[in-house]
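WARN  no MSA supplied for this record, continuing single-sequence
INFO  ligand: protoporphyrin IX containing FE
INFO  echoing inputs
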Amino acid sequence: MKKLFNLFLMLFAAMPILSLSESNPTNFSETCEDGSGEPGSSFGIGFDLVLDFGLYRNSCPEAESIVYSWVQTAVLQDPRMAASLLRLHFHDCFVNGCDASVLLDDTEGLVGEKTAPPNLKSLRGFEVIDSIKSDLESVCPETVSCADILAMAARDSVVVSGGPSWEVEVGRKDSRTASKQAATTGLPSPNSTVPTLISVFQKLGLSQTDMVALSGGHTLGKARCTSFTARLLPLQTGVPANHGDNLDFLESLQQLCSTVDPSVAITQLDLVTPSTFDNQYYVNLLSGEGLLPSDQALAVQDPGTRAIVETYAADQSVFFEDFKNAMVKMGGITGGSNSEIRRNCRMIN
Ligand code: HEM
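INFO  complex generated
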């Protein structure tokens, strides 16, 4: 029975996109400022690389099933791993395009992105990607890029957690460089305001709807107290930061963060269904139980994002359609040159 269920999941993972509930024209030429005030980079969607659905069908037909089975095993052992693999793909794509630069270790002559503040002591899942890569290298050497592995692993993480499936476009190449600076300034901060979040996503060709849908990734995984200290301010100052603050929820967070070292204390981004990919995250936002300031802001700072949050909270299928659409768009962010297919995802060839 379990084998049958697994087979069903694997077939499901390979199903094509059915329909998209939104089509947003992307604006490649628009640049804007991120929260740090640094000028934005000019990466956009599909600049110099054409991604394709069936690239590995002939060159490495086992690719999808190898990735899926490693993800499934890893998530069975550690349910949080689904969240960590999904986030790795996001942190890869937002820094100079989806090029696996996030996976590079510091070596002589190369400073990786792992020690950039948004990633340090926070990104996880590198060993799972290593295992996938090592299996793929023995079956079809130098064929499947690390950046494509990240994209497939992100999709499979969503699927094994009960979320939707989509077909992953492949053909990404791996970078021969990394940018700690870009990882430091280019990723959105949990204290970002809604206009800043919209700008950061827009400069990569992602719409406001894409941003709210992708934030739904926070239906999985955990965050450290240091990521949401600003949520506790109303308790300390007595001044509500947001209309709709849920004081009971904030008190429980304060208790957690004051009893354990805040740099190691962690809690679920979605307290109700932490390991299930569903629309509960949006329901939580409406009751003031968003964990990160940037999450709660979506429901209270802007009527446009609030309306999208309400739609997703009321109808999970709309969220799933928009999430799939946005993941394909995010996975299509390319940039840079000098690319290769790494033999080891942690170092250039
Ligand atoms: C909208 C802007 C976003 C901000 C400001 C943001 C910020 C954060 C922060 C601060 C954490 C906790 C890190 C820690 O405390 O160690 C986190 C975790 C996470 N983020 Fe985001 N994020 C954003 C968008 C996204 C997107 C687009 C995705 C994927 C589609 C995503 C997926 C995740 C996941 C799954 C986790 C939990 C990871 C784990 O448990 O290992 N986030 N995010």
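Strands lie at 44-45, 222-224, 266-268, 333-334.
INFO  checksum written, moving to next record
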